[in-house]
Amino acid sequence: MYSLTVCDHIMIAHSFHGEEFGPAQRLHGATYAVECEFRAAKLDDLQLLIDIGLAKTVLRQILETVDYYNLDDLAPFKGINTTTEYMAFYLHGKIAEACKDGRLGPGAKNVTSIKMLLREAPTAWAAFEGPLS
Amino acid sequence: MYSLTVCDHIMIAHSFHGEEFGPAQRLHGATYAVECEFRAAKLDDLQLLIDIGLAKTVLRQILETVDYYNLDDLAPFKGINTTTEYMAFYLHGKIAEACKDGRLGPGAKNVTSIKMLLREAPTAWAAFEGPLS
Amino acid sequence: MYSLTVCDHIMIAHSFHGEEFGPAQRLHGATYAVECEFRAAKLDDLQLLIDIGLAKTVLRQILETVDYYNLDDLAPFKGINTTTEYMAFYLHGKIAEACKDGRLGPGAKNVTSIKMLLREAPTAWAAFEGPLS
Amino acid sequence: MYSLTVCDHIMIAHSFHGEEFGPAQRLHGATYAVECEFRAAKLDDLQLLIDIGLAKTVLRQILETVDYYNLDDLAPFKGINTTTEYMAFYLHGKIAEACKDGRLGPGAKNVTSIKMLLREAPTAWAAFEGPLS
Amino acid sequence: MYSLTVCDHIMIAHSFHGEEFGPAQRLHGATYAVECEFRAAKLDDLQLLIDIGLAKTVLRQILETVDYYNLDDLAPFKGINTTTEYMAFYLHGKIAEACKDGRLGPGAKNVTSIKMLLREAPTAWAAFEGPLS
Amino acid sequence: MYSLTVCDHIMIAHSFHGEEFGPAQRLHGATYAVECEFRAAKLDDLQLLIDIGLAKTVLRQILETVDYYNLDDLAPFKGINTTTEYMAFYLHGKIAEACKDGRLGPGAKNVTSIKMLLREAPTAWAAFEGPLS
Hints:
Six copies of one chain form a homohexamer.
Chain A (H helix, E strand, L loop, with lengths): L1 E13 L13 E13 L11 H13 L19 H17 L10 E11 L2 E8 L2
Antiparallel strand pairs in A: 1-2, 2-3, 3-4
């Protein structure tokens, strides 16, 4: 199994609902260092899993929809705690869509699964990985 | 599949038995940078896999039993080479117990497996991962 | 010259005023990975520049005043853009005070300067360093 | 499942064929930070998955065949784009051979799979993982 | 003293002349992870040392002149060993020019020195720092 | 001013004397990730500050005298707390000697100062820097 990972980051504000969150119930923020891993059983004829430049471009387009925003204000997150694990799931869905609708090029047809990992701090990170249905 | 990782570190002394270890047969030591990854197929209603603060607290409690010790002197390790891979296995067992006995909160009931990774140096690390039986 | 560095991190929200900031004019946030470096020409009799545990405790106390907050709402920052370089300056002032008023222990009397570095992202960071007047 | 990872790096030149590569069609180069992970279901009697020193030595021997070379000039890569994902596959094959022919010691008989990861830049890396047939 | 650092990277080929270089006399390559640090005694009215976005853009423009090239083929490096320390010096000169001719914006007038650091591998890096004359 | 840094690591045991050290009074250990920085105002005719390979070899020779040892048992450290800051000072002295007695090659005559940095954990490190007298 091959894998290819490209990185980027976003800087967002948000707050959490639930006593469990303690001080994180207040409006605060995070830099999420994003690592997006594509997996495939084979490479294309050029020996590429996916074009790195294209992967970075498409990942950036997806991240632009949340980067430099207060997530509490965005429609997709109304009534949802935008925890790191949830945001990994959410962004995984967006990049999986891009894989399936051709935005990531013809090589992406070999991609069988994607792992989206978000580092919220030097000592904590979360990820969501799943197959391309 | 979701995952959540929290980090900490310990500073221990130990020695190894067996010619294969060369100079590591002498009493020496290590900083183990610890990365503990919890995996679950779903999040709770708050969109949490597990509470990060609680996970760090419980991990620290477990690490306290070995942190700043000469492992050669501790009962659980009598007659055992405390290699990095063994210590990953040992600590995995302790955090798995905490998951099962409720110390990691109700969300931990969703955890299906744990990976315990210990970095002994910038160029070498070991891990043990396994399901929660 | 000796130096000793201890680390921590904070997660804050804020917004910037000025067209130059582009999308960062919106309310967003950041994780600041904090590296606080103390410099001294000599160590104490125990061969310590400063006690690491105490340094981490005092640094955490200072960071608590801004951690998990929207900086736009805090009194010290009214009318000020809380850029990374500014926050490094601000936090430098707070730790320098702690050094001078004895909170960092008697060894801190040898500290001649401090560097406060804040990493806002994997690709950008800022610092303020200055002598203890 | 246990895993053990050892690291090294190589510095190579190469060029790519195919318009998709853009400026990377020109002769350029890369430092590949290499992370070689061995997986096994059990440790040997010394609590070792594999001897770290031996693993580093054998990995270095394999890397010597490509380190400080222009890959375009080497026989194994004639007519092949030596992308990061391809090189991970290629080096995986070589270390898997060493595992099977005894060069990694008797403990290596427990190794069931290997992951070879190559970091080409702070923001991109690729890997190949596969079982030992 | 304030400092602000922005990062990028380049992937180049080159060879060295001189027996001292051993196998590095062969055509090989490197990824240089670039860290460009600007220093200034004061910030502007917006609390900026320099605009991070602009700094990254100008740094990228400068790096484009060497990125994805065989340095042996470029005019500025004829008869010169393009060691990491030399390349740090060379790129320092280019960014210092940009600082002085206004490309980095009006805030750059406060910049008193620049440090250009190039990481060639996880275990080796070089830098050149100097004042803006 | 040019600088060149090479890295290595050591794994040692030790204990500290003094109530201030708390649990670190017990025999424990550390991995010290070592970063040795050489500074010089000019490069040699080959554009080298110092030969990286030679620097790594000599640094390793120096580190061998403490690597895989219990520092409490070594003559140079009798009655001395081998704190990270002290060990940085001690190793700085050894590499400075090597610089002055020619072991680091003729290029080392340009070296004006050295910084020896030891990372004891992901969240703490210490250094000693000083001129070559």
